[in-house]
């Protein structure tokens, strides 16, 4: 624990983990990001939409079929008094059961032809689920063991495999959609293999070591998080289903590819959240906890807002580079998705605080409220204004989830200049609207200037922290 350490040491510990994950993941994610032109030139909008729908289906069922046990694996692994062998064995038990259940689900979907766009991809979706499930278990267990460097290296390996196999399967062998699936499956399998060897996971697996009391406590914690995971999925993927059903799979292909630019911010969010999860749990209950939480929230949110504003301006130039042929029109859906990513990050930063308290019910209710609002707003707005309605609905519902979580966290976090944060988000909303509907760059430049002025105190703090870290 951080007991007896200064606020500075706690923040430096967080920065160290962020730095490791940033070096390991961000540069590699950029390389995958640059492969978007390959996807959009080789695959049709329908093929890309089918792939995205299949992956979304697998990731939706994962927390349900596993009872979201991987989150409990991470959280309970950080409790030093609990036997790690029991935790890992419990996690593997539920992952194994979920694989069987998922196979049955895919068989049923094929029989009733519920999702006609992906019904012929059953074997690929099944293999994707198996590789995804095992990889997620190992990532969360590694995080619980604080093996941050190993997590980062596993991410780099997965990215390298993705790049090589995408080029091989799509350009050389011309396997099309099947090759795209093979690439994703291999990347996750090899990443999981690396983590298995590095943490020597076989030393933690012993079915005889499963403690019924520990399993019961883990399930009490994780089961409410099923709603949280499904809620997050709905907020990020329900729009694709609504668009696919109301406007067609090709339209979903456009919406899906528009998520590729916001993926830059999502990558940042993932890095910050992974490092923050460890610090939030370790820090909980110590002196000045709420102040440390608040300072960290403000620091990360400002970085995310700056990246969002910059990328909104670059929406069309990046689309020219990344989106080939008929995919180019997807640029207009990017700005509101960027804003949504910022709000999701804010919610994501509050989640680990609730996790540290083991208050999974609060996370559950925020997800349920956000999910219901998202589905209703998506149907209404997609019907009224088409694909853009889905992006606006996603942004609004991201804020709803944040607001519910902020209320639940309460006094456990003290955020200075909270009014400034709200004003910044509103300015980003205006900038997203201007870019999507007016495309007047001078207005956006003015908005960015106002953003800098409003956040000048926070910007000065960031430069001071960076200077202090490098000097010391």
TrEMBL record:
Protein name (Swiss-Prot/TrEMBL): Oligosaccharide flippase family protein
InterPro entries reported in the protein's UniProt record: Poly_Biosynth_Transport (IPR050833), Polysacc_synth (IPR002797)
Compartments where located: Cell membrane
Membrane topology: Multi-pass membrane protein
Membrane-spanning segments: 20-39, 51-70, 90-109, 121-139, 151-173, 179-197, 218-235, 241-259, 292-313, 333-355, 362-381, 387-405, 417-434, 440-459
Keyword annotations from UniProtKB, A to Z: Cell membrane, Membrane, Transmembrane, Transmembrane helix
């Amino acid at each position: 624990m951080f007991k007896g350490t200064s606020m500075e040491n706690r923040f430096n510990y967080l920065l160290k983990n962020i730095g490791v994950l940033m070096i390991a993941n961000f540069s590699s994610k950029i390389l995958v990001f640059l492969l978007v032109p390959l996807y959009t030139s080789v695959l049709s909008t329908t093929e890309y939409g089918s792939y995205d729908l299949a992956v979304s289906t697998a990731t939706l069922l994962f927390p349900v079929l596993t009872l979201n046990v991987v989150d409990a694996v991470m959280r309970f692994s950080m409790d030093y008094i609990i036997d790690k062998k029991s935790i890992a064995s419990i996690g593997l038990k539920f992952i194994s059961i979920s694989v069987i259940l998922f196979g049955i689900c895919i068989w049923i979907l094929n029989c009733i032809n519920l999702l006609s766009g992906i019904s012929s991809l059953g074997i690929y979706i099944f293999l994707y689920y198996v590789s995804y499930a095992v990889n997620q278990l190992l990532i969360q267990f590694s995080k619980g063991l604080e093996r941050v460097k190993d997590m980062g290296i596993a991410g780099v390996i997965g990215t390298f495999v993705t790049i090589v196999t995408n080029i091989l399967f799509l350009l050389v062998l011309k396997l099309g959609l099947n090759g795209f699936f093979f690439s994703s499956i291999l990347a996750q399998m090899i990443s999981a293999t690396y983590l298995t060897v590095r943490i020597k996971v076989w030393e933690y697996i012993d079915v005889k070591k499963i403690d019924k009391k520990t399993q019961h406590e883990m399930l009490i914690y994780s089961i409410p998080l099923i709603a949280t995971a499904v809620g997050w999925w709905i907020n990020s993927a329900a729009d694709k289903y609504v668009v696919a059903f109301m406007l067609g799979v090709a339209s979903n292909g456009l919406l899906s590819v528009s998520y590729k630019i916001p993926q830059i911010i999502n990558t940042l969010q993932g890095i910050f959240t992974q490092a923050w999860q460890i610090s939030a749990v370790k820090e909980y209950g110590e002196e000045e906890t709420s102040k440390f939480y608040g300072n960290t929230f403000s620091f990360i949110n400002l970085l995310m807002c700056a990246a969002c504003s910059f990328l909104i301006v670059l929406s069309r130039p990046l689309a020219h580079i990344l989106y080939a042929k008929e995919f180019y029109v997807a640029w207009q859906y990017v700005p509101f998705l960027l804003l949504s990513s910022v709000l999701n990050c804010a919610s994501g930063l509050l989640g680990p605080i609730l996790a540290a308290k083991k208050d999974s019910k609060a996370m559950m209710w925020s997800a349920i409220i956000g999910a219901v609002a998202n589905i209703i707003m998506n149907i209404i707005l997609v019907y009224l204004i088409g694909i853009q309605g889905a992006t606006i609905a996603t942004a609004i519902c991201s804020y709803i989830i944040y607001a519910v979580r902020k209320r639940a966290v309460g006094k456990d976090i003290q955020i200075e200049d909270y009014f400034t944060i709200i004003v910044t988000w509103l300015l980003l909303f205006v900038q997203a609207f201007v870019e999507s509907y007016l495309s007047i760059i001078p207005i956006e430049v003015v908005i960015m200037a106002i953003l800098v002025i409003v956040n000048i105190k926070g910007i000065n703090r960031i430069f001071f922290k960076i200077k202090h870290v490098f000097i010391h």
